[in-house]
Amino acid sequence: GFYLKSGAYNNVFYSTPRSFARYGLLLLNKGVWDRTTVIPSSYFPLMTTSSQTINPSYGYLTWLNGKISYMVPGSQLVIPGSIAPNAPADMFAAMGKNGQIINVVPSKNLVVIRMGDVPDTSSVPYLFQNDLWGKLNAIIR
Predict the structure, then answer these.
(1) Is residue 79 within 8 Å of residue 95, measured between CB atoms?
(2) DSSP 8-state symbol, 61
C-alpha cells in the first residue's frame, strides 16, 4: 500500500487486498515478519489491550473484541457488549473508512480482510462486522 497526500494535513492510505492481508499476517505474528521485528515488541501489546477506560474496546490503532462496552467514533454514547458478539472474543481489528477491515483472530490463527464499497448504509461498520462473523462461524467451526 501507499499514502497519498490529500490537502495540507491529510494522508489517505491505499492498499491492495494482498498487502492488506499481509499486514494482517504481520499483526497475527505480533509484529514479526520473516524473523524481523517490524512493530516493536514494546508497542505491540499496546495495540491489543485497552488504551483507555472510557472505551475499553480500543487499543492503539486497533479495535478489541470481547470487552464490556465500546464507543463509536464521533459519539459519546457507550454501547454495552462486544463490538462483534458473533466474532471470537480475542479478535482485534483495524477498521477503516467505508468498511475496510482487517480482522485478526489469534486463537484460530486467522486473518480475515474486507475491502470494497461501503457494505451498507450504516455510518459505522460494526453491524456489518457482526453479520460477517455470523456467516463465517458457519464455515470455520
Answers:
(1) no
(2) S
Q: At a CB cut-off of 8 Å and minimum separation 6, what does 34 contact?
A: none
Low-confidence ranges of the chain (pLDDT < 70): 122-125, 141
Distance between CA atoms of 27 and 25, rounded to whole angstroms? 5
How far is residue 39's CA from residue 33's CA, in Å, rounded to a whole number? 9
Give the 3-state DSSP-derived string for 64-129, with helices as H, strands as E and coil as C. Answer: ECCCCEEECCCCCCEEECCCCCCCCCCCEEEECHHHCEEEEEHHHCEEEEECCCCCCCCCCCHHHH
Q: Is the pTM of this model over 0.85?
A: yes
What residues have CB less than 8 Å from 2, skipping those under 6 apart?
13, 14, 15
